[in-house]
Design a protein that fits this description.
By secondary structure, the protein is mostly loops. It has 1 helix and no strands. It holds the Pfam family DUF285.
Amino acid sequence: MPADNLISGLTDVVTFNGDVSMWDVSGVTSMQEVFHGAKAFNVPLNNWVVSRVTSLAAAFSGANAFNSDLDSWDTSSVTTLAGTFNYANSFNGDISTWDTSKVTDMSSLFVGCSSFNGDVSSWDTSSVTTMKRMFMFCTVFNSDISGWDVRQVTAMDNAFRWNEAFNADLSSWDISAVTNYGSMFNGATMFNQDLCGWGDKVAGSISSSGMFFGTPCPSTASPELTASPKGPFCHACPPP
């Protein structure tokens, strides 16, 4: 059986926890939904050769027990990480070394990852166009991502929604391409960073409804983008 089909055959196997650690997957190009819904699966996979894989979309989505380090994976061919660890509740494995330079889609990547607080500071995000829902319900994540290149990102809606730990400084992000900030920090109960520096970069015709609602920001109002200066951005923004 071709490797791609063998991998796909595991989809939604709720009780699967077989030892696949020594499988030869070097010819596989897609691991989309490979362990999707495999709630019991927690086998080390760091030996897998994934250098040809282009899609890890929803690969561990709903794999509630999975918590293996994957720092040896060569992800240089991957273009989508959409929903990769979606509701993988136990996952806090090492993925700090992943090559994400070709990834364009990080939407819902860590949604519901209630244990994840890994170091992703060195990820190359320069090709990413969507980060919507990326850390939504990722309730302990507070790692430094201030150095990320987000110049191509157009969608940030719900990115940190209901993340109860996040309070990293994102003031240096170039968000000039973003068109949707809707509920970006909604319910992020620790976030209170001053993002007034975004005002000079943000476009005037974007969605920002509920951007800071439910945060401890001094000002939780949605930014007024036709004002001068634009704002507030969590804090009231003084005139230049």
